[in-house]
């Protein structure tokens, strides 16, 4: 017979549920409300101040016909694909090396993770100095006698995004390494012993056994990296300011320029809505695969 004195599920942890009400209301009003407000006003001709004068899809048509926006999308795609691949590869390789129980592991882990503690503005300024041809890497190499050596990615419109990518990888790879290392430390030691007994090469053990077992870690890391890529802004502003010309323009900077400098809120809202859509395209499938699959199981 059921215990009638035991509270039902609705009344369990009442104090915790009451305490969470302000957070839920804040999320609904600020985040969800702000998102809906942005989407609605992206269909208006708002300039300096928001106004409800709808113009249909005019802002989106103007957005996708603007060369500056198309350049920003292309730059973000180049940066995003390379950053995603290189961050995962470098982070996993570093984690695999640290997982070999090497000496001074804590020291190396601190060194690799330290750049992540810096803000993107500081990182951008540091790498702006390092890549400056007047006193950075190019100057140092030329002073050693290699007069023809050229390395000025931040001043070359064709490769400026690769200079920004270097700074981004320097800062973000340490976090990926820590996430991967945590996943590797969760692998049962008996799996490694069985692989060695069976004579399986280490690279095959990683490729066909360890990496598939770390799928949740890879998915979580993928979401973290991708969300950071979409909102790329301060690193670009600190290193190049979007230059030379508009060669390093990115969507987040485009939104800022139109909302706060060009005084064209409608265009900024349309651009930010497209950024929101790109994040939703990433988050929704991930949430479905992670939580929908478990419910079906």
UniProtKB/TrEMBL annotation:
Protein's membrane topology: Multi-pass membrane protein
Start and end residues of each ABC transmembrane type-1 domain: 73-288
GO cellular component, one term: plasma membrane
Cellular localisation: Cell membrane
Bilayer-crossing regions: 21-43, 76-98, 110-130, 159-184, 205-230, 269-289
Predominant location category: membrane
Pfam families registered for this protein in UniProt: BPD_transp_1 (PF00528)
GO biological process, one term: transmembrane transport
Superkingdom, natural source: Bacteria
Stored InterPro entries: ABC_transporter_permease, MetI-like, MetI-like_sf
Stored PROSITE patterns: ABC_TM1
Keywords annotated in UniProt: Cell membrane, Membrane, Transmembrane, Transmembrane helix, Transport
Family, similarity comment: Belongs to the binding-protein-dependent transport system permease family.
Name this protein carries in UniProt: Sugar ABC transporter permease
Species classification: Bacteria, Pseudomonadati, Pseudomonadota, Alphaproteobacteria, Hyphomicrobiales
């Amino acid at each position: 017979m059921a215990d009638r004195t035991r509270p039902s599920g609705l009344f369990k942890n009442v104090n915790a549920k009451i305490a969470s009400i302000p957070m839920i209301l804040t999320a609904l009003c600020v985040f969800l409300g702000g998102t809906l407000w942005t989407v609605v006003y992206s269909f208006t001709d708002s300039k300096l101040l928001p106004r409800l004068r709808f113009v249909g899809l005019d802002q989106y048509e103007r957005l996708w016909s603007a060369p500056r926006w198309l350049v920003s999308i292309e730059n973000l795609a180049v940066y995003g694909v390379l950053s995603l691949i290189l961050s995962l590869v470098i982070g996993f390789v570093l984690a695999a090396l640290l997982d070999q129980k090497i000496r001074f592991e804590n020291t190396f882990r601190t060194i690799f993770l330290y750049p992540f503690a810096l803000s993107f503005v500081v990182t951008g300024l540091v790498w702006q100095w390092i890549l400056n041809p007047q006193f950075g890497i190019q100057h140092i190499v030329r002073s050693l006698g290699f007069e023809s050596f050229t390395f000025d990615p931040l001043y070359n419109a064709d490769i400026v995004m690769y200079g920004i990518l270097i700074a981004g990888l320097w800062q973000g790879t340490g976090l990926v390494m820590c996430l991967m290392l945590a996943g590797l430390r969760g692998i049962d030691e008996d799996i490694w012993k069985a692989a060695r007994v069976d004579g399986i090469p280490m690279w095959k053990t990683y490729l066909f056994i360890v990496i598939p077992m770390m799928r949740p870690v890879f998915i979580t890391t993928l979401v973290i990296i991708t969300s950071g890529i979409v909102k790329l802004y301060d690193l670009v502003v600190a290193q190049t300011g979007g230059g030379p010309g508009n060669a390093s323009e990115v969507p987040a900077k485009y939104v800022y320029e139109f909302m706060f400098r060009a005084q064209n809120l409608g265009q900024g809202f349309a651009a930010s809505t497209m950024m929101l859509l790109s994040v939703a395209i990433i988050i929704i499938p991930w949430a479905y695969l992670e939580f929908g699959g478990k419910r079906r199981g």
